[in-house]
Amino acid sequence: MFASPLRGWILGLALAVGSGAGSYLAMRHGQEAQEKRFGQVAEELQALRKAVMARPPAPAPSSGHAVAAGISPAMQSEGARLRPEDLDAIAARMVAQLQQSGALESSGRALGPPSPPAPLEPEQQQALVRANSLVDRVLSTGKLMMQDTQEIRRELALLKSRQEAEEVRRRIIIALNKNQLDLPEGPEALP
Amino acid sequence: MTHFAKKMVPVLSVAVLGGASLAHAGATYQMAWCGKSPNGSGYCHGTFLGFRNDSGASTQAYFYKSDSGFKTFYGAFTNPLGELVTAGCIADAATGALWSKALAHEGYFSIEWDSNGTCTYLYLANSSQYSTF
Questions:
Q1: Per the confidence metrics, is the pTM higher than 0.90?
Q2: Which residues of A touch B112 (CB under 8 A)?
């Protein structure tokens, strides 16, 4: 009398167990593939780290927690520099890893040159002209006064993080580094 | 407490404090140096404590970041020849990534820049030798 419902329950239970086992196996397979890929990357990083560690250290006077960016003086020596073919191999390997991971496809668009920045707003253009005029005057006199610094800084504030603002500041820094410009005494001398 | 013992309390206190400070004196290190070539490229390295304690009246070093994200370094140092070396640089992407650490740094740093005024190398290290914290 209740044999048919019981058979249904057993069948449902079997299906549930089978589905769970199938999901587990698929997930396990995916995890193994991912772990294998991570393992390969870790091995490559380990080899690269060993190669870098074998080179002369950065010029720290003593031990301690340290961070660095750029190319250290030790790395700039001819014997310690990575060869072009090493860099090509690293770049090619990185591209291959990105392609395998699908990161390039998932971005939704092909990698291309960056789009040009938006044109300056009229008031930004005017501020840029004023800032460059101030710098022209400062460079002609060879002396940057604190008032100049504040005026240039005020004009450049309108340009926010635009590249044009950086170029104005760079003109001052290059002149300073070439001993063509004296800065005012005190902190915050650069605009 | 006897009168003699009361008189000895400050003496003993000073002796204990002095002994304690001597017992805990560790290695210290401070220095300041900047140099540059005629094309404008150069470097500064040392500790902030070293720049602050340098005998040159204009010697200083600072990292700066504006609200628009502009990151720059400025250093001034009077070398043994009596020449004032002043220089600065604008962070590139790699060195700029460390700028937030540099702004809070109290230890040893080494920074280099090219003839275009771009900071090309930045090294930061903290150690018990560099700062009183």
A1: no
A2: 70, 73
